[in-house]
Every structure is written in structure tokens, then in C-alpha cells.
């Protein structure tokens, strides 16, 4: 059960924040090349002109795979350590 909860808790935040991360990275990379954007919406419009919606969500799959496994490991370790702690308290 902790595996499923960890998967869901790792995927939902990554899906919701991925768009903002892509726009921020795009803005930073273009700033290195000497092109400045006044605000993030301008950078978002530039991404949409070049790659439409596919450009916004490029790389979401590998990011989800990484974050889902990280959340799984975190929750499984948390549940295991919680069980060990409860067993140690009961034995004392």
C-alpha cells in the first residue's frame, strides 16, 4: 500500500509543477545565450510558438519515473522505520 501511495504522491506534484519548471529552465537557458525575457509569460509564448504543447511537456516521462521511484523509496522506508519503532516501544 505504501508503494501505491508513494507513486501517487510522487506523480501528482511533478505533473502540476512540471510546466513551471520547463518555462523557468527555458528562460534561464535563453538568458545564457544573451536573449532576455521580461516575464515568464513571454518565455511561455516562445515555447508554444516553437513546439506547441509537446514542447511544454517534453521530458515529463523520465521525470515522473524518477520522482515516482524516489517517493516510493521514501514512503517504504518511512513505513518500515515506523513499524520498527512501534515494535521497539512495545517490547520495552
UniProtKB/TrEMBL annotation:
InterPro entries to which the protein is assigned, alphabetical: MCP_dom_sf, MCP_transmembrane
Signal peptide: none
Membrane topology: Multi-pass membrane protein
GO CC term, one of those recorded: membrane
Protein's name according to its UniProt entry: Uncharacterized protein
Keyword Transmembrane tagged: yes
Keyword annotations: Membrane, Transmembrane
Subcellular location: Membrane
Gene3D superfamilies, A to Z: Mitochondrial carrier domain
Keyword Membrane set for record: yes
Main localization (coarse): membrane
Lineage, opening ranks: Eukaryota, Viridiplantae, Streptophyta, Embryophyta, Tracheophyta
